[in-house]
């Protein structure tokens, strides 16, 4: 665990030691007997442990197949919690958690962490199930009675997993870039986990009931193929999403290479768009779409001659008209990507203005899609706070004041106010995106923000 900070090492130890204590009753001669003096079959433990490890190995052998590592086959673990005493049920998770590979260093610490959290979660689920009399309900195949006790056990399983993940977040546990309080982060993680774990719990209960039925363990295994099919469909969705994200990254990299002065601009506009969307209370799915809108807003620059994007001198009216075509070029490039949703409208309309002086169609007011109004503010803000070939970066307070001044005429006041609040809370630390030099000629670039500090931004033909 030498590659982990001391605090993380202590946290892993605080999870591992209680997990070992949960398994202590299984040690021959242990002074701690199994809860309730329950008996169990070691054969059942070995079968479930092998089944869990095998299913997880199969999941990991498929690229991008398990979006939540270590959680593809919770039904097997929960079936163990419904069938076995808590220590024996916890042991089911141990071989797979310790032996299966992990993706990042330090490998031993991550294996211990994965094993400890699963052992504690299964043990807690088993204890709750046993205390509620769930063992008798499963043994008698009493479905109504088993459902109630299983629900309490699943809730305990989910609580333990999310409480532990809240102290040592798993990759992808929380939305990227989110800065929220620890209780709010835990509550969000708990709500995200509860529905899928409940489905796994129902499948685990079905396995347990079939195991105790006259048909035996072979019948219980029949639950796994439908779960495997649903897991495969879920994995296909994530593969498709990963492919779209790779496409988006490739397009953005192409724009950055073509227009070196704005390298990194797209990612920062995506980040600012995401901050505005969250401040407005949009759901996570829409926040992600608006992040994509910000990232892709300038993809149409791929259709603009490079000499115009990198020209240091003033642009002629004809050159500005060519640059003004980039929203339409961008829309043509992304309109076939259904995954982007309303981001496509933002790509097309992010240079429209509330007073109707924008482009490409001169829309005004409510005619401009909300997504485009979000990106317009994010784009203008980053343009002002980044060094360009024709202007120096301005301090964040100056840029925000300029946005406020232009709110109502060029920018949606709601979007401006949301960005001001978000930056007031989280701050803004952009990387410098261009070399620090300006042309000798005047600033006639169309992507500046309107106002006395940057007079060219208010002109038609913005080049952001």
Automatic annotation (TrEMBL):
<dbReference type="InterPro" id="IPR006674">
    <property type="entry name" value="HD_domain"/>
</dbReference>
<dbReference type="Pfam" id="PF13487">
    <property type="entry name" value="HD_5"/>
</dbReference>
<feature type="transmembrane region" description="Helical">
    <location>
        <begin position="189"/>
        <end position="211"/>
    </location>
</feature>
<dbReference type="InterPro" id="IPR052020">
    <property type="entry name" value="Cyclic_di-GMP/3'3'-cGAMP_PDE"/>
</dbReference>
<dbReference type="InterPro" id="IPR003607">
    <property type="entry name" value="HD/PDEase_dom"/>
</dbReference>
<feature type="transmembrane region" description="Helical">
    <location>
        <begin position="112"/>
        <end position="130"/>
    </location>
</feature>
<feature type="transmembrane region" description="Helical">
    <location>
        <begin position="150"/>
        <end position="168"/>
    </location>
</feature>
<keyword id="KW-0472">Membrane</keyword>
<feature type="compositionally biased region" description="Low complexity">
    <location>
        <begin position="448"/>
        <end position="464"/>
    </location>
</feature>
<keyword id="KW-1133">Transmembrane helix</keyword>
<feature type="region of interest" description="Disordered">
    <location>
        <begin position="433"/>
        <end position="464"/>
    </location>
</feature>
<feature type="transmembrane region" description="Helical">
    <location>
        <begin position="76"/>
        <end position="100"/>
    </location>
</feature>
<dbReference type="InterPro" id="IPR037522">
    <property type="entry name" value="HD_GYP_dom"/>
</dbReference>
<feature type="domain" description="HD-GYP">
    <location>
        <begin position="240"/>
        <end position="435"/>
    </location>
</feature>
<dbReference type="InterPro" id="IPR006675">
    <property type="entry name" value="HDIG_dom"/>
</dbReference>
<feature type="transmembrane region" description="Helical">
    <location>
        <begin position="217"/>
        <end position="235"/>
    </location>
</feature>
<protein>
    <submittedName>
        <fullName>HD-GYP domain-containing protein</fullName>
        <ecNumber>3.1.4.-</ecNumber>
    </submittedName>
</protein>
<keyword id="KW-0812">Transmembrane</keyword>
<feature type="compositionally biased region" description="Basic and acidic residues">
    <location>
        <begin position="434"/>
        <end position="446"/>
    </location>
</feature>
<dbReference type="GO" id="GO:0016787">
    <property type="term" value="F:hydrolase activity"/>
</dbReference>
<feature type="domain" description="HD">
    <location>
        <begin position="262"/>
        <end position="384"/>
    </location>
</feature>
<keyword id="KW-0378">Hydrolase</keyword>
């Amino acid at each position: 665990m030498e590659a982990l900070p001391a605090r993380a090492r202590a946290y892993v130890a605080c999870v591992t030691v209680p997990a070992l204590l949960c398994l202590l009753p299984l040690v021959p001669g242990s002074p701690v007997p199994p809860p309730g003096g329950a008996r169990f079959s070691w054969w059942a433990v070995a079968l479930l442990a092998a089944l869990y490890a095998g299913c997880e190995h199969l999941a990991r052998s498929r690229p991008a197949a398990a979006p939540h590592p270590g959680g593809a086959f919770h039904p097997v673990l929960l079936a163990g919690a419904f069938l076995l005493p808590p220590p024996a049920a916890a042991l089911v998770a141990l071989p797979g958690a310790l032996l299966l590979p992990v993706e990042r260093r330090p490998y031993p610490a991550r294996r211990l962490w994965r094993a400890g959290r699963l052992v504690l979660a299964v043990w807690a689920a088993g204890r709750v199930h046993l205390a509620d009399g769930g063992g008798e309900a499963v043994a008698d195949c009493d479905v109504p009675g088993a459902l109630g006790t299983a629900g309490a056990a699943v809730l305990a399983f989910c609580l333990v997993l999310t409480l532990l993940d809240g102290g040592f977040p798993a990759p992808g546990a929380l939305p990227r870039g989110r800065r929220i309080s620890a209780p709010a982060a835990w509550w969000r993680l708990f709500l995200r986990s509860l529905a899928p774990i409940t489905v796994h719990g129902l499948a685990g209960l079905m396995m347990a009931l079939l195991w105790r039925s006259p048909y035996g363990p072979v019948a219980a295994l029949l639950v796994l193929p439908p779960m495997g099919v649903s897991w495969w469909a879920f994995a296909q969705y994530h593969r498709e999403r990963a492919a779209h994200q790779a496409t988006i990254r490739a397009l953005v990299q192409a724009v950055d290479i073509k227009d070196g002065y704005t390298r990194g601009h797209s990612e920062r506009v995506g980040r600012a768009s995401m901050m505005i969307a969250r401040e407005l209370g949009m759901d996570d799915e829409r926040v992600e779409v608006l992040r994509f809108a910000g990232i892709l807003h300038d993809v149409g620059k791929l259709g603009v001659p490079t000499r115009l994007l990198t020209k240091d001198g003033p642009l002629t009216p004809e050159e500005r008209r060519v640059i003004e075509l980039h929203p339409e070029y961008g829309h043509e490039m992304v309109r076939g990507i259904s995954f982007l949703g309303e981001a496509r409208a933002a790509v097309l309309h992010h240079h429209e203005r509330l007073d109707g002086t924008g482009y490409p169609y001169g829309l005004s007011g409510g005619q401009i899609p909300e997504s485009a109004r979000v990106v317009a503010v994010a784009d203008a803000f980053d343009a002002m706070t980044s060094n360009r070939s024709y202007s120096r970066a301005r301090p964040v307070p100056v840029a925000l004041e300029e946005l406020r001044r232009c709110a109502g005429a060029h920018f949606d006041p709601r979007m401006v106010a949301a960005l001001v609040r978000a930056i007031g809370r989280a701050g803004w630390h952009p990387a410098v995106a261009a070399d620090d030099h300006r042309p000798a000629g005047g600033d006639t670039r169309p992507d500046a923000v309107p106002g006395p500090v940057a007079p060219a931004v208010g002109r038609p033909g913005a080049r952001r």
